[in-house]
Structure formats: C-alpha cells, structure tokens
Amino acid sequence: MRCRDRRRWAARSVWTAGPPWCTPQAVAGLGPRRPRRAKRGGSDMTTIGLLHPGEMGSMVGAAVRSGGSRVLWAGEGRSAATRKRATDAGLEDAGSLAALVRASEVIVSVCPPAAAAEQAEQVAKLRFAGTYVDGNAVSPATAREIGGIIEKGGATFVDGGIIGPPPVKPGTTRLYLSGKSAERMAALLTAGPLAAIVVPGGPGAASTVKMAYASWTKGSAALLLASCALAAAEGVEESLVREWKISQPELSARAESAAKGNSRKAWRFIGEMEEIAATFAAAGLPDDFHKGAAEIYQRMAIYKEGPAPSFADVLRALTPRRPA
Amino acid sequence: MRCRDRRRWAARSVWTAGPPWCTPQAVAGLGPRRPRRAKRGGSDMTTIGLLHPGEMGSMVGAAVRSGGSRVLWAGEGRSAATRKRATDAGLEDAGSLAALVRASEVIVSVCPPAAAAEQAEQVAKLRFAGTYVDGNAVSPATAREIGGIIEKGGATFVDGGIIGPPPVKPGTTRLYLSGKSAERMAALLTAGPLAAIVVPGGPGAASTVKMAYASWTKGSAALLLASCALAAAEGVEESLVREWKISQPELSARAESAAKGNSRKAWRFIGEMEEIAATFAAAGLPDDFHKGAAEIYQRMAIYKEGPAPSFADVLRALTPRRPA
Q1: Are A146 and A120 in contact, with CB atoms under 8 Å apart?
Q2: Which of A65, A92, A319, B199 could be B205's S-S partner, Cβ–Cβ 3.0 to 4.6 Å?
Q3: Mean residue pLDDT across chain A
Q4: Do B240 and A288 touch (CB under 8 A)?
Q5: Domain coverage including residue B107
Q6: CATH no. for residue B24?
Q7: Domain membership flag for residue A144
Q8: Are B113 and B141 a contacting pair, CB within 8 Å?
Q9: Chain-centre distance of CA A303, in angstroms?
Q10: Which of A20-34, A108-122, A196-210, A285-299 has the lowest mean pLDDT?
C-alpha cells in the first residue's frame, strides 16, 4: 500500500473515528431529558397503550411505567402467559383493544414483524387520533406503509426500532425513533432501563438502523450455525474445531451460544430476516444473505416449545434434507 | 432452561470441550514428522512442481523448498510479476508445463478455484504419473472431479485446502490433506512455516474443512460490508456506529479491516464463494449466504488494480444500482 493510500485509510471516518462526543458515555446521555415524573394519578400523567406484553413488550411497558406514565394493555383474548407478564410488569388491563385505543394518548406497538401492519390496521379502524409508535423490526418500506395506515386513521406516526434485550438492566436497550414527533416520544419513553434515541431522517430511518444492526447480529449467527452444520454433516467437525482453536479461538463458543440463545426465539426471527432481505433489495444490495438466514431460523423453529436442544441436535435440524 | 437441559448443554462436545490434546500447542505438533532434510542435490531430494507461483503459491513453494525439496515452476507464458515472485522464492524454472510434468514426482496445484479443474486436465493430458496435490479452495465435489481427471491420467490424487495467509511466519498457515497418500504428502510438505495436517475421510474431506472455514471468514466479511453499505446508502451510518460503540465495540474496525484487507483480493473470492454455495447445497444447507457474498465480492472486483479505495468508496461500490 502506498503512502497516499495509507493516508486515505487513516483519514477520520464516522466508522472508526467519530467526533469526541461519540463515545458510549456521551451516547448514554444523548437521549432527551427525562420528563418530570408525574405524580401517579396526577393530571399530567400520560396514558400509554402497549400492544402487546410479549417478552420484549412487557419489559418496555415496565420501563415506561417506571418513568411515570400509566401503561395499559388489552387483555381480551390473550393467553394466561401474556396476562402473567403484563401483571408482573404492573400494566393495567384496559380489556378490549377498543377500550385501550379510547383511553390512550400514545400507543406503542411491540409485536412480531409479520403482525405489525395488521396491528396498525386494527388501531386505525378504531379511529385512534393520538401518537402511534411502531417499535417493530420491519423494513423502512413496511414502516412507511404502517405510517400511511396510521395517519389515514387520524393519528400521528413515529417510526421505531428496539436494539438490545428486553430492558431490565440499565444500558442494555435502546429504542430508536424517527419522524416528526420523535423528540417528544423520546422524552416520554426514555425511562428506567430504556433509552430512546432520535434518528434524523424521518419515518423509516429508525427502522433502517434496526435492520442494519440485526442484519449483522442475527445474519451472522445464522451463517455461523450453517458453517458448523456443514462440518458436522460432512464429518469434518473435529478438524474445523482444531483449526478454529488455532486461528479463530472464539468461534466454537460463539456458535454454541448462537444455538443456545436463539433456538427458542428462531420462529420470530424468520419474519425479521424477510424484512431485512427486503431492506437490502430496496437499497440495491443482495437479499440472499437473509433469505439464507430465514431458512436457517425456519429449520430451528421446531424449538419454540419443549426442552432446549443440544448443539448437535440443532446442527442436525439444519441439514434434514441432504440430497442423496 | 431446566436442569436437564443445562446438563445437556454442559456435556462435553467437540465444539467447546475437545480432548486434552486438542490445544493449539498440541495441534501444532500434530502434523507428521518432518522428513529428513535431504542434502541439496542429493539423490533422496524430491522434485516438486508448483502450479503456479501466485501470492500464495510462491510462498508455499518457498516453504516446501526450505524443507529440502527441489521446487520447479513453469515460466512459459507467465507474467513478469509471476517470474519475480518465483525467483524471489528460489523456485527453478522448468520452462514448459510438459517439462515440469516430466521432471516432477509431486505436483502441487495452487490457483484460483475456477482454474483448478482445467489445470488438472492439462497435467493429466501430459500423462503425469506421480502424486498430484490439489490445494485449491474448491467444493468437495469439484475436488473429487479433479481426482477423477488426475487418476484417469495415471497419477495419485491427494485433496488439499490451505487455511491462513501465504506462509511466511511460522504458525500462520496450514495445508489440510486427505486421501490415500495424504500422510506421505503431509510428511513431505510440512516444511518451514507451512504445517500440513491430515483430515480423515478420503478425497473431499480436506476441501470441506477449507469450505467450512472460509464460509465463515469470507462470508461474514461480505455480510458485514453489506450491513455497512446499507446504513451508508440510507444515511443512518452515524446512528449505527454509535450503537455499535455501545453494544458491538469491535465491529467498526472489523468492517474497515474487511474492506481494506479484501478489496484487492475480492476478484479471487468470487469463485470461492460459488464453490462454497455448491458445497452448502450438496449438504442440504441454503446456498444463499454465499451467493450474496459472491455478489459483494463481484462488486469489489474493480479494486484488483489501482490505488487502494477508501472505506466509503468500497461502500459506495456495493450499492451502485439502487432502484428508484
């Protein structure tokens, strides 16, 4: 590499040499100021409807509630497991979706990506006129489609995407928000262990951050499991693992952790991988990576219920249809 | 996770808890004993033909030569750059391919994957009757096809795959070998900074180790660059990088290094990604990941010559055809 090239590489770039304020510490303080904590039951308390209290949604609800908001959910027709999560999180059951829509100033949608648009349709049909935050892992195109549905119904739309595990410990989880009312929603939803961060660029921008982030985390986990499944199916796993011990010492543990951490959740990742594939295609990038990842998670979807599989079980499940 | 499941995960597995001898130190000593170093010019010196002295091939040739073998190359019709590499590596020019075939007891093929079968055809046509080691990044099916070509011509076939950079420093590079004469070839080719290691399982097994290994290293590098290209094309790279600084602190540097390290070599990775895709399909795994990776490296192939591109240049090259 010539000197001139070396200088080009060394040039400051957003990727490796962000401005001084771009540090984890600075970023943690980047969110808008937390709103004054309202006295519970006081007139300045915001009522937020949460759809729905799944593993992520219930903890988002609990976090927002800890910031002083009243958080409702709609228990009608929901499972006992969902009811337990909602109750444990201190959420109030509004009963029907219609009752939740009537009582809420803000609705936050946290559901599997494939259900996100249908969820918005239902809310729009009930003439919700507050602010609707879609926090789901959908493509920017799907997010904008949801925005159209919501605004046609008379509400304000804010695009969102959640990065990190269900917010229990501080510093783990961020809700990215974009669109006209993103600042206002970030002030309301930054609460307890949840940090809400505004992304410039209007509706779709927050979803793009989520898509780009998960394209690596969930896409690379699927790829790594596929590499292991190949070695196992062809009987060369001992040689591969010995080579990894020398040159990629973290990979064996990372692969086992990808299987262990994702096998029960794989069923929900299928739709997310499809949204990422669509996002890549719309940006002119190959959508193949995440079509492959969707197929890997599809094969792992059998582990939604029942005992956790061993690593070898997962690898076998990934190569069930070996051609002769 | 229940107790029984925890026990299953904790069970010893080849992936995380190999036998005690399965450590880098032990593995480094796993290769067969180095053959007695022949006196240069002595009658027990093996003559090895190397096809061809590219960046990898020339260093493999130099390593093998340092073990006491005589190493030939075929200079006829080759470029000045190849001649310089061969000369610097101390290889002897046999002149034509026919002369190299006549003079060599062993031929080692190190060339781009797309050229591997054609290379074997040429050697077989010249009635080579020694041992032919195919060290190329090809699928096990292609390796076995090459084996068929070679054995029909009257020679013995050994399947191979190289993992690591061109062998200059000890401990960086391993030549995996499989097939009937793999032990004998490992003894001959373990030399200087190159370690040759036998993979059980016959022809195709060594190539499978290489395919599984590169499926992660080169596949994940392509995926990471695609994730960055998405963020850059959609204008959310600052938000992504800030999130990475918090939760994936190594990724920005890893992405820049994937662009920097691979941009000049991307043209050679296209064929390798296609071989990996074929290997996955034959094992019943999705071939999409590496079709996507082939497309990424195809778009980077413009950097084969000329000055090294900046990271931003590479990302722009990956999204040239954004749909309107």
Answers
A1: yes
A2: B199
A3: 89
A4: no
A5: 18-203
A6: 3.40.50.720
A7: yes
A8: no
A9: 20
A10: A20-34
Render pLDDT for B112-126 as a digit per residue (tens, 0 to 9): 999 999 999 999 999
How far apart are the CA of A274 and the nearest CA of chain B, in angstroms? 13
Q: Check CB contact under 8 Å for A231 and B212.
A: yes
Q: Are residues A110 and A148 in the same domain?
A: yes
Among candidate residues B152, B180, B203, the one where a domain is terminated = B203
Q: pLDDT at residue B38 above 70?
A: no
> Do residues A20 and A135 both lie within one domain?
yes
Does B7 score more than 60 pLDDT? no
CB atoms under 10 Å from CB of A138, counted, come to 30
Are both B150 and B41 inside the same structural domain?
yes
Q: How many domains does chain B have?
A: 2
Q: Do B256 and A22 touch (CB under 8 A)?
A: no
Alpha helices by DSSP H, chain B? 3-10, 24-28, 55-66, 80-88, 97-103, 116-125, 140-152, 182-189, 205-233, 237-247, 251-262, 266-282, 288-300, 311-318
Residue of A246, A252, A82 whose CA lies nearest to B170 = A246
> Which chain B positions have a beta carbon within 8 Å of A307's beta carbon?
2, 4-5
- What does the pLDDT read at residue A322? 56
pLDDT at position A16, please?
66
- Determine how β-strand A106-109 pairs with β-strand A131-134: parallel
User: Does B139 reside within a domain?
Assistant: yes
pLDDT tens figures, A26-82: 344 343 333 333 444 445 799 999 999 999 999 999 999 999 999 999 999 999 999
Q: Do B136 and B276 touch, CB atoms closer than 8 A?
A: no
Average pLDDT over residues B300-317: 95
Answer yes or no: is B190 within a domain: yes
Average pLDDT over residues B159-185: 97
Distance from CA of A139 to the nearest CA of B (A): 12
Per-residue confidence (pLDDT) for residue A104, from 0 to 100: 98
Per-residue confidence (pLDDT) for residue B295, from 0 to 100: 98
Pair (B131, B253) in one structural domain: no
Cβ of B215 within 8 Å of Cβ of A199? The answer is: no
Same domain for A255 and A193: no
Do B51 and B185 lie in one domain? The reply is yes
The confidence score (pLDDT) of residue B15 equals: 76
Residues A151 and A283 in one domain: no
**Beta-carbon separation of B289 and A285 below 8 A:** no
**Closest partner CB to B223 (pick from A24, A220, A283):** A220
ipTM of the complex: 0.89
- Looking at CA atoms only, how far is residue B148 from chain A in angstroms? 20
Interface touch A242/B280, C-beta < 8 Å:
no
Q: Which residues pair with B227 in a beta bridge?
A: none
ω before B290 within 30° of 0 (cis)? no
Q: Does residue A1 carry a pLDDT above 90?
A: no
Q: Which of A97, A33, A42 is nearest to A69 (CA)?
A: A42
